[in-house]
Amino acid sequence: MRLTIAVSSLLMLVPASPGWISTLPALAQTAAAPPSLTGVWGPYRGGRGSDPKLAPPPAGALTLKLPYANTYAERRAAEAEAAARGEPLASGAVACVPYGVPRMMSVALYPIEILQTPGQITIVSEAFSEVRRIYMDRPQLPPAEVPPGYYGRSVGRWDGGVLVVDTVGIKPSVPAYQNMPHSDQMRVTERLRLITADILHDQITIEDPVVLEKPLTYTLAYRRMPNYEMVEFVCDNNREFIDEKGGTHMRVRER
Amino acid sequence: MAARATLHGAVMFTALVCSAIPAAAHHSFAMFDTTRRVTLSGTVTAFEWTNPHAYIELDVPDASGGIKHWSVELGSPSILMQGGWKFKDLKFGDKVTLVISPLKSGQLGGLLARITMPDGRVLGNGPGAGGAQP
Q: pLDDT tens for residues A25-63?
């Protein structure tokens, strides 16, 4: 604990620039203890009142293979048309189906809670009360051996001060980044690291040999929320419903 | 090859357009006409502090002496608390004034923009729109 505090204090003294970030793993390795990520983290999206040096870098380009690029573009066009009509096409979330990996890591303004325990790191997302478990220092299974689901199987290791998480086994019906399509061979690699004591970045790389022309990388940024108490999220008053064409509607009540 | 470059361009363009839409966890805001604002002054018949959304049910007197009933959607409890709300801020019988974006369908429902509470406080619908949701 004392080591972690020492590292955190040092980090606060170092000016934020791309140059020093690359020295971070070496610094933490010298301390021989991984940093503590335990706590609640809210989205840090840059913009007014925030430090642009701490905001996430722009996302890489989403480059889909054919025919997926066509299907995706058609879906986006249909979404835009339906939205203009006031009947937006429903996603799973409209029926309160959770987001899964990797989208649960960034749902609107909702925080996530990271719990670091021996052999396991657990991440709880406030929206839809999602939970993912990262098993530390265990070998990953081939994707074909993991039952397809929303969270797949995640294994993690510390690379100096960087938590590297490898996830496979996300079923294709679970939408990924920007609702992009993906296959059962999708692999999600995350690199979580403290940029300062209170700013965390999760660099997410999606690889999919079936759907993606090249890997896609984007970064999420979080700010620490000390003393925040996670709010429960049980979807028991869902007034949105989906019509036979997939459009979303709000149910109004009579007097 | 040229056709493919155009396709990629289309995908990127769409992604940019989508990132301008405020962050939503549960559904798109496109059901509501966010270019319009309607002011409703009336009496709270229910305040539901629930997920995925909180709701205000409101009886609003109309010009002909009758009552129109409105269902108004808010953010979730978490988002509202980030904007200064508490679960017991409203109760049955409270007199309030709401500014909403109405449903495009014309039904008597909408999305809260802001509310003037019985004690005069003005609250929004959470801490403000977030950025893009990847």
A: 444 445 568 999 999 999 997 777 778 889 999 999 999
DSSP state of A113: E
A84/B52 Cβ within 8 A: no
Domain ranges of chain B: 27-124
Taking the C-alpha atoms of residue A171 and residue A182, their distance in angstroms, rounded to an integer, is 8
Neighbouring CB atoms inside 10 A of B122's CB total: 10
Q: What's the number of domains chain A is made of?
A: 1
The pTM (predicted TM-score) of the whole model is: 0.83
Interatomic CA distance for residues A47 and A159, integer angstroms: 31
CATH architecture of B27-124: Beta Barrel (2.40)
Stretch B5-25: mean pLDDT:
41
Is A178's CB within 8 Å of B104's CB?
no
Quickly count: other Cβ atoms within 10 Å of residue A201's Cβ.
22
Q: Which residue of B has its CA nearest to A126?
A: B78
Q: Which of A69, A76, A248 is closest, CB to CB, to B31?
A: A248
